[in-house]
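> forwarded from #structure-qc
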């Protein structure tokens, strides 16, 4: 299982709509509105890195109102 945090910047006023929409995407564990340089932080999981990448590109980045994403895979050192 691969887990990652996805940091999302949205259009002004769209953070809560984006978080609500993303929470229904399969593989998304949690989506929260936050303050700071990012507007939404998502915790996601998938079976493989490739599957995670496909989810981000095909599902998450297609949500209306998103302007930029940054995916941060979780590592266990």
């Amino acid at each position: 299982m691969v887990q990652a945090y996805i940091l999302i910047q949205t259009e002004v006023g769209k953070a809560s709509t984006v978080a609500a929409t993303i929470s229904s995407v399969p593989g998304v564990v949690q989506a929260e509105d936050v303050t700071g340089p990012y507007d939404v932080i998502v915790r996601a999981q998938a079976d493989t890195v490739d599957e995670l990448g496909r989810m981000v590109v095909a599902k998450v980045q297609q949500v209306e109102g998103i302007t930029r994403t940054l995916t941060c895979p979780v590592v266990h050192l």
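QC bot note: Helices lie at 15-22, 49-60. The first strand starts at residue 2 and ends at 10.
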